[in-house]
Amino acid sequence: MKNNKMTEFETKCVHSGVDEFEYGSVVPPIYQTSTFKFKNARHGAALFAGEEKGYIYTRMLNPTVEALENSIAELEGGFKGLGCASGMAAVHTVFASLVQAGDHVVCSTAVYGPTNTLLSTIMKKFGVETSFVDTSDLKAVKNAVRPNTKIFYVETPGNPTLSISDIAAIAGIAHKSNSLLVVDNTFLSPVLQKPIDFGADIVLHSLTKFLNGHADVVGGIVVVKVEEMYKLFRKTLNQTGGVIDPFNSFLVHRGIKTLSLRMQRHCENAIKVAEFLESHPAVKRVYYPGLASHPQFELAKKQQLGAGGMISFELEGNSFDSSDGFEAGQALMNSVQLCQLAVSLGGVESLIQHPASMTHYTMGKQARETAGISEGLVRLSVGIENVNDIIDDLEQALEKVRQAASVF
Ligand code: LCS
Q1: What pLDDT score was predicted for residue 318?
Q2: 51, 90, 121, 363: which could join 84 in a potential S-S bond, CB 3.0 to 4.6 Å?
Q3: Omega into 195 within 30° of 0, i.e. cis?
Q4: Highest mean predicted confidence (pLDDT) among 290-299, 313-322, 369-378
Q5: 213 with 264: CB under 8 angstroms?
Q6: How far apart are CA 75 and CA 182, in angstroms?
Q7: CA dist., res. 271 & res. 263, Å (int)
Q8: Which of the residues 55, 59, 284, 361 is marked catalytic?
Q9: What is the mean pLDDT of residues 355-379?
């Protein structure tokens, strides 16, 4: 970081990772090249041997990608970032780097569906055992530790239940058992939560979400705390090849400039939407860490700077609906007009979806039940639109659900 006055977070969002570029370019140029020319054969050999610094081949490192990696590492307070082709590529990079046959992982029950499936199928196939536990329950976390436990993997808030896990306490448990703590910080971004400050060793994100913020990129990142781990992860990524490309890196880096403003607006809107839903007679239960009714409301205040933009809720079952709010939830999703019925989250636009049949379908019903993901749960990613428009949309949709119910 050239400008050591750059201490405030909002300022970092605008300037981080932006170093000196050719021609005085104010934003990182898009180095849309697969390979880099060596000055001569000796130079090429020295770059490969690590005796000189420089770029060789874009799968190995690219200046536009590196600018993004430096930016997010700085925002998270880590040593370095490693840009990945998707959030799932980031999750895979972590496990492929750190575990081997015979090792054990402790993972939150409430995680993005494919993260659960990666551990319970592919990693299992390679001899890695995973215990899925409710990591908001510290006793359950302690009880899950085995002599061969290598990683504690936590999503907080968890997707889609918004359950919150105590990062500092789990870091303590992990380190006591010579393990590492990995935190998926996708739901909050470093604006609202910095897991490394609470003892996490590795932080990862789906860049597809809040960090990019505009629903036009798929990407991921792993941020590590120490150089040794950076070298290990870089080797994995180089060998498995799941890197982000320069153009997507440019877009995410551009998105980060407004990250702080966007997160502020997501939070302001989400609390109003959550309060509206909680007070509506058709809504049975709302899960939002900014509501006093959230089971870990106090913990959220301790480790988060805001409650974020994600809300989950269940509707009351209606007279026609014996499936615990599931049909009412479907009717709601079919009735919204402003909120888009789509998976993904963290963009400027409000998105609504149904975890049991969409994002968490691959986990299977039993794993969903263990994770507290009911069949009727609806997840809302609150965008940065005018909040009155979002609430009006939900209100008219809930009215349609009520009318549909009264028909039966
Ligand atoms: N981690 C979390 C917490 C996520 O929510 C997702 C994607 C990923 C990792 C994987 O990121 P990707 O590979 O998609 O970039 N979550 C999604 C969701 O809830 N709806 O669609 C994707």
Answers
A1: 56
A2: 90
A3: no
A4: 290-299
A5: no
A6: 17
A7: 12
A8: 59
A9: 90
Residue 262 has pLDDT above 50, yes or no: yes
> How does pLDDT run across 35-77, given as a tens digit for each residue?
999 999 999 999 999 999 999 999 999 999 999 999 999 999 9
- For 260-405, CATH gives 3.90.1150.10
Residue 245 bears catalytic tag: no
CATH code, residues 10-256:
3.40.640.10
Type of residue found at 282: A
Q: Kindly give the distance from the C-alpha atom of residue 56 to the centroid of ligand 1, in angstroms, as a whole number.
A: 31
Residue 1 is predicted with a pLDDT of: 42
Ligand 1 site residues (CB inside 6 A) read 86-88, 112, 155, 159, 184, 186-187, 206, 208, 218, 220, 343-345, 359
Burial 275-303 (b: 16+ CB within 10 A, else e): ebbbebebbbbbbbbbbeebebeebbeeb
Nearest to 389 by CA among 354, 344, 337, 346: 337
Give catalytic status of residue 393 as yes or no. no
Average pLDDT, the chain: 94
Cα–ligand 1 centroid distance for 153 (angstroms): 15
Give catalytic status of residue 209 as yes or no. Answer: yes
The pLDDT tens digits for 209-219 are: 999 999 999 99
CA–centroid distance, 216 to ligand 1, in Å, is 14
Return the domain boundaries, the chain: 10-256, 260-405
Task: With CA atoms as reference, report the closest residue to 381 among 389, 372, 390.
Answer: 390
C-alpha 171 to ligand 1 mean position (Å): 23
**Among residues 132, 83, 113, 107, which one has the least CA distance to residue 182?**
107
